[in-house]
Design brief:
The radius of gyration is 23 Å and the shape is globular. It has two domains: about 10-25 and about 50-195, no CATH class; about 220-330, no CATH class. About 35% of the residues lie in helices and about 25% in strands. By secondary structure, the protein is α+β, with helices and mostly antiparallel strands.
């Protein structure tokens, strides 16, 4: 197999750790007997273990996404943006005999400032089989694998060939796994003394305003530089940067989607809602090309105090039309661009 490149190395290892489940021959069915320090109480929500300085949280219910054709397509589109990582992941899952849909329950992603990213993966995880698989694959590609003890946990580190990329991971007594792209961030995740997100005045409050029962959900604080883009986009109609954002998506009956943007004032929220409605009209015209104009018309935009909410509820027929539109957009064009002959004709 070709040497893993960035971001393929990190992508594949994170996803491999996140999708290794039980059911491997000879793997013990009980939780590891070794006592480990607990960063969170058994049965607590996955977000409970995130440090207070977390700035973005995303949650994914694997059964709910996998149970929807549209959810599976969107997940494939996301992973397909790095074709090499996608192919390597498929090969790794096949060699390690992993069935992600059966073995995974939820994936919770916590991000802080800079490059600190961690995943809390819950499901039927088998530590010995997972460690063996990641170790073998890492070394087969010229990398190194090591372990150490931190806060009563055995922490594993997989390093790419040349040492350019590293992934750290460990396990909790409830058989959930924690995967991080920095040792420091993983250390905070498992240190019982670390202040937790639920006690945070900013991100903790945002978590209370999003449904964590959705198939996919997320919320977070918007960096000032990113929030300032809305001011530029509206050419000054909105005067201050966006403060925070949240989203939810459900696939129970068709597709239900909600996006909420929190602004600094009621006035800015009203201005942004008016601007967004104008852009939606242009989008409806462009959507006619893919026969999804009626679906765009179902998008509702309202301002509520200092927030702007964009919502859409599509039925099964709408979802099928959307799937067809996505397939059409992804398909290669049957009519290659015509050869430019202007210069040739002028020279005759």
């Amino acid at each position: 197999m070709a040497t893993l490149r960035f971001p393929a190395f990190a992508t594949v290892l994170v996803l491999l750790v996140a999708t290794c489940g039980k059911g491997k021959a000879g793997a013990p069915d009980q939780a590891p007997a070794a006592a480990q320090g607990q960063a969170q109480a058994p049965g607590a929500p996955a977000t409970a273990g995130l440090p207070a300085e977390t700035r973005v949280v995303i949650g994914i219910s694997v059964p709910k996404v996998a149970g929807s054709p549209l959810g599976r397509r969107l997940a494939a589109e996301l992973l397909g943006r790095d074709a090499e990582a996608q192919q390597q992941l498929v090969e790794l899952l096949a060699r390690c005999k992993i069935n992600a849909e059966k073995d995974l329950d939820t994936i919770t992603i916590g991000m802080a400032e800079g490059q600190d990213i961690a995943l809390v993966v819950r499901g039927k995880l088998d530590e010995p089989a997972l460690v063996s698989c990641v170790k073998s694959e890492t070394k087969a590609n010229g990398g190194s694998f090591a372990d150490k003890t931190m806060s009563g946990h055995t922490v594993y580190a997989a390093t790419s060939k040349g040492g350019g990329q590293k992934v750290w991971f460990t396990f909790e007594p409830d058989r959930s796994a924690i995967v991080a792209l920095s040792e420091a961030w993983l250390g905070k995740m498992i240190d019982p003394a670390t202040p937790r997100i639920d006690g945070s005045k900013d991100i903790g409050k945002l978590l209370g305003r999003v449904s964590r029962d959705a198939a996919v959900w997320g919320t977070g604080l918007v960096p000032a530089t990113v929030g300032q883009n809305i001011v530029k986009l509206t050419e000054g109609q909105v005067t201050q940067p966006a403060q925070s954002v949240a989203f939810e998506a459900t696939f129970d009956k068709g597709l239900g989607a909600l996006l909420r943007i929190d602004m600094a004032s009621d006035t800015d929220a009203a201005k942004l809602a008016t601007f967004a409605k104008g852009q939606l009209d242009f989008l409806a015209v462009a959507a006619q090309r893919f026969s999804i104009g009626p679906m765009v018309s179902k998008i509702q935009i309202v301002s509520e105090q200092a927030s702007v909410k964009l919502s859409a509820n599509l039925d099964d027929a709408d979802v099928k039309a959307l799937e067809n539109a996505l397939a059409k957009a992804a398909a290669p064009s049957k009519n290659p661009p015509a050869e430019k002959t202007g210069n040739k004709e002028q020279s005759r």
